[in-house]
Each structure stands twice: as structure tokens, then as C-alpha cells.
Amino acid sequence: MAIDPIDDQDLDIEVQIRGLMLDPVTNMPIVVLKDVASDLVLPIWVGVFEANAIALELEKTATPRPMTHDLLRNMARGLNATVHKVVVSDLRDDTFYATIWLMQGEEEVTIDARPSDAIALALRWDCPIYVSQSVLGRTRQAATEAGANANADELRRWLENLNEDDTGQYKM
Q: Regarding the domain delimited by 8-162, which CATH topology (the fold level of the hierarchy) does it fall under?
């Protein structure tokens, strides 16, 4: 009897960008991802330049010359490849990792990336963004082990109750 391999898609949760905002304590940008099927949210702190690249695409702002993520999209297109999904795939030492999934002809290619770059590219390809269940489990476990359960709950409630003014226009 043959055993079917586990489909990685089954272990991934589809998310959408709920907002892009500044951390009120550190003034660092945060991309807030929200599970499309529940109220679960995941904040990911990102760099200023990456946040700007995400904001430009969220706001559909045209630039006079291609920005880095536009260049990557154009290169993939030039190589007859398409980005069909990105996955926030790992969390190690408080650092998130992502994978960009491309199709080039019949071949599937995966590329390691920072989540911020993967998200910026996903927006340009209008493809789905996923977070692996193991990453979500580890973020919950890390908050609990750090004794920050109350703080994690407060952060979760704060993120879930953000309104459009809180997550609206991200300005540099």
C-alpha cells in the first residue's frame, strides 16, 4: 500500500495583510498578517525599506523607475517564471524565514527569503501568502515560555481590534 506524502499546503494557513503600522515603542514597521479563516493575527517586524516597498504596492503607488521588488518580478517574468505563493515557513532564534514558490515551465522552484521581501513580491504577483502551522505554534509557545502570556494576549486583542485609521496609510 502506497502512502501519500503530506501536502505542505495542508500545514499552511492562508493569511492576508491586515495592516502595516509602526510599533509605538520601537518605531519599527510591523506587517500585521491575519488568518483569512479566523481572527488569528501574526505581527512581523520588518525593515524600513521593506515596509516602504510593501506600502507602495498596498497603495498602488507608481514609481518612475522599478524598485527592487519590481525588478525581481520583472526578472522572473523575463525567465518565464511565475510566483504562485509565499510561505512564512520557519521561526528560529526570534527570526522569521520565508519561502517563495515559483513555477518555471513544469518545474517548481523554491527560494529562501526574508518574509518582508516575500510579502512585497507576493503583492506584486497578487498571489497568496501563507504561514506554516508550526510557525504559529512556535510564536504562541515562545510567548508562553517568556512568561508574556498576558502581554501576548493584550497584543493579540490590540491587533485584532485595529481600525482602518490604525492600519491605514503607512507613511515614511
A: Bifunctional nuclease domain (3.10.690)
